[in-house]
Amino acid sequence: MRLEDLESVLMRAYSLDLRQRVVSAYEAGSVTIKKVAERFSVGETFVKKMLRQKRAQGAVQPPAHGGGKPRTLSENHLKALRQWLKSEPDLTLQELKERMLERKRKAVAVATLGKVLAEEKLTRKKNQSLRRKETTGNGRVSGGESKG
User: Fold this and answer.
1) Do residues 51 and 84 share a domain?
2) What is the tens place of the pLDDT at every residue in 25-81?
3) What is the number of H-type helices and E-type strands within the chain?
4) Is the same domain home to 51 and 91?
5) Do residues 7 and 45 both lie within one domain?
6) Of the candidates 108, 112, 120, 46, which has an alpha carbon nearest to the alpha carbon of residue 82?
7) Taking the model in full, what pTM does it have?
8) Residue 70 gets which letter from DSSP?
9) 50, 42, 44: which is closest to 20 by C-alpha?
């Protein structure tokens, strides 16, 4: 089994139907928490949690998703990125990072910028002729001076 498959199975909440059947089985008779857990292939802690939740809330619904981590960059930051890339499409991620800090006072990781650009389908167009003028293939600046 791949790690991604394992994580999706481990992280998924038990169905409402299973939760209700676990509680009903325990409440139906003289069966132990351990036996209920074995019967439904769940942990004893899960059975106890469902019984506690049923007593406290009267229901066993899984909790709502928390919503995840908020976005790092606001819509204002995204708008600035779009404008910068429109006017200078060959900006590197490092240059975008520096510009974001200087102009928007927002510290952001290069990796975050890469993810945001991919999510927003913003592309950077490298101007190879411009880059070639800056350095030659041997690491020297055009004009014969060494980068030393």
Assistant:
1) no
2) 999 988 999 999 999 999 999 999 999 999 999 999 887 777 777 888 999 999 999
3) 8, 0
4) no
5) yes
6) 120
7) 0.45
8) P
9) 50
Distances (CA, A) of 110 to 27, 98, 100, 107, 138: 55, 10, 11, 10, 27
CB-based contacts of 127, cutoff 8 Å, min separation 6: 89, 90
Tokens of 7: 């994580």
Q: With contact defined as beta carbons under 8 Å apart, do 14 and 47 qualify? A: no
* DSSP summary character for residue 97: H
C-alpha torsion 91→94→80→113, nearest 10: 110
Q: How many domains does the chain have?
A: 2
CA distances to 34, 42, 106, 145 from 48, in Å: 10, 11, 46, 74
* 117: containing domain: 75-125
